[in-house]
């Protein structure tokens, strides 16, 4: 282990170091970060940009009495190193002992589990108000950057923090980036503030009522300590606007900030000129679809809220697409309402968004879009049970989206169905349509899908059988096929296999017809059971003699649990499902 | 009918009038508004403040080619009068032919159904972008005010509208108010801009990148026409900041803006010094509970997002409460995250919010609050099936809230249960707790509730019977009692009656035990069935011989449909339910 980092077991160990030693420490930390990220992957760019600032924060403030709230918290690796968790970054055997986000279960220096953007200011305002209620005096610090200031919740937080009348420090880490480049008018003001070293009269933070400090050199520990000392124990709300370089210290990352926001294992071993051939994927075929449409003169427009990876548009293609591509920045609520407005005036918006972030837009999906029945298309990515961190689960979108009136939520099982659904969604003018992308891996059957999706809630019987009917939704249709095979092999049952296509409604005629020669209907869905698809089937058969078994995940926040463990636990393997069926039929 | 108004059948009729005639028209409109509102109630303050501005807008712009989007749209009465719907305001027999909000089904001059705040800028940005895609040239105007600029979605919209690079006009109706007074730092900037007649260097809108015009006299039609003419056909984003008086022209409303935001029928007949005795209500007993707690030295804090009516705190009491009462302004997302932060640092936050607005906070309820398991209390008001406008329905909160892990959602049936639940929620430190206020009318049984709510998901058997079990949730428990009575009378069945208390989980032991001597379990919930409480019961019994019937509302946006019609339609009367039970038992 390295020299100085070796001695740091808690923030107080920092306070005895000289500025020079702190600089050496920064180098050692950077080295450890790169080594670890190259083994297990992670948010390399954001953390390289926060090395000096985190050292200076812990040098000046007294965590955990003084409370730091990291926004998104994917930039908290250095904070973890300095607060007793360095081994998780220096000892490869312990790499997996900490998560990629702050977590109160890991350390008293972490106040919240956080993985969504723009929340830190509201959370910190709550901590500060509670401090005032109790008559305490500690510093409360929100650390926000990486584009999170375009999120509405951050603004609501700023607007309330600024009238708190007591200590709250908002450290704005201005690295000129979201995941991709920043979008939105306020970032032009930040550029002006950087150009004028914080002296411009036109100052967003001041108009909202904040005292304001600017720090140009976000990688100069001495200067950072100076400005943090100035605001420590301040008796009113203050913004410290700090200019940093995303990816600082790693040349490729400084040059290509978007690509190095997050790195996959081994990314550092890739040669700079090495072209990585990306396989065909749902984003890539969607991009092709959109390009084809606008080249034919259609008013399609691809929309992302700062996660362009889901759109399939690379930086070059975005420029080519011109008005047919829009990144609204981290502003998911706006993205959905904007799409509704576009559809209302005759355009064809296609918004790509992750399941865990579509959560931010329930009211926009309901009130702005579905109540108005505007024909926008929403593509929901990263949906389904996964080994993800508890802040990035994709298991909740079915209850969230499918219980909204007017909305049509579709579940394709393969490339061909997806393209047919997408084409229908974009061409029609009657419904808001969401499509749940089934998987990262594209399954292609090679068989064209000629389904007419304008006939809503029509399920497709893929194989006709009796006794047991298997309804396999979207990504879990393939599990349904396996169950059918095993049912035949083990119990000699020739089950009916159904691909429902629609999450948002029941094919009542088909379900009714099953009653004549089926004892049991099972549903398989890649998400939580509570409020989901299967429960609607259970309700439908509630008064009949047909029995129903619903398979899906439990209502819980899982945290980086391996997928096979989750499948075991939830009975989502063909063996466990067939055993449950056998028990039920006895 | 009055003289000039009589001649106005569409906006183009305005364009032939002199300024003097337009002023007379304003008086006639004001008169009609007051007369109508005094008969059927409505948003009197916001509309009185928009009379001149709406006349000037329609004088200058060419609706519906030029497109106006009213934020919240409760201030669109004058717009309706001028766009072919005046009879709904002048002819008492036609008062109910228009809704209180914009509605594309009513008129081509209305672009969206809108009843939630802060959405207009995003929606208008979508209209504008579609216009640009099509190569059209019309004006797009968002009309926002009444405190809606503190909402995060408005900020996300501003931030994107300002970089649109083409025509979009944001008319900010600054009446110095939300429903209550404004809260948040940005409003101090608006005050500065008013004081300086828009000339202050510190200008929120300019920092976000807007061109900016200020209009001091929001009730001077000539001046308004002048400024609107200046921005008409402008080729870039612009904010017109207009100063108006909420309630203009009605003395009591100008003096007491919060009370006259919305008026009940006959409100104008109340004498100014007449004291209205408010009956005991859920807000009033909650307020008493909170005052009692903080007087005993507990760190409770009442939170509202600009709807203080749900807190029970009158303006006087808010001042008395000091730090124990916070209005965060229209900023629901912040309110929930703020509550999470408060709870994390040892305070006892109690947030009161309407069902239709809690929708805006799904991600905060999930990610910021429940994932962190912080013990905040959320009181959900105005929940349940109702004759409300489609934008203000209270039927969706059960699927929204109850499918979030860790969250405890409680359903009291009376005052005593509510107080016991509230007391438990505030005292404990283990769970975020939401409580669904069952009704506006307080039911008191007079029997103290001694239930230990820390034993989660324990249902209460109120009357033991057999054959049929009735699970009556929250406000529908009273319907359950009626059904039990009628079952006895009509079918001679002695049904079991259950008060589940908990929406978020199943009492599996109890449900299991029912299997021995019950053929049918029915569930009654005051909200949509899809994703709701009853479906979980149906799933539980899916593989058993017990049949299940779920009663609740359909998945649809109803629009001001009388409650008894909805109850008929959804089979939510004792007669219809008993008939369904009879059919099922046959």
From TrEMBL, chains A, B:
Its EC number is 2.2.1.7. Pathway: Metabolic intermediate biosynthesis; 1-deoxy-D-xylulose 5-phosphate biosynthesis; 1-deoxy-D-xylulose 5-phosphate from D-glyceraldehyde 3-phosphate and pyruvate: step 1/1. Residues 280-445 form the Transketolase-like pyrimidine-binding domain. One of its GO terms (biological process) is isopentenyl diphosphate biosynthetic process, methylerythritol 4-phosphate pathway. Its cofactor is thiamine diphosphate; Mg(2+). GO terms for molecular function: 1-deoxy-D-xylulose-5-phosphate synthase activity; metal ion binding. PROSITE patterns: TRANSKETOLASE_1 (PS00801). The keyword Magnesium applies. Pfam families: DXP_synthase_N, Transket_pyr, Transketolase_C. The keyword Metal-binding applies. Keywords: Isoprene biosynthesis, Magnesium, Metal-binding, Thiamine biosynthesis, Thiamine pyrophosphate, Transferase. InterPro entries: Dxylulose-5-P_synthase (IPR005477), THDP-binding (IPR029061), Transketo_C/PFOR_II (IPR009014), Transketolase-like_Pyr-bd (IPR005475), Transketolase_C (IPR033248), Transketolase_CS (IPR049557). One of its GO terms (cellular component) is cytosol. It comes from the Bacteria. Signal peptide: none annotated. Homodimer. Belongs to the transketolase family. DXPS subfamily. This is 1-deoxy-D-xylulose-5-phosphate synthase.
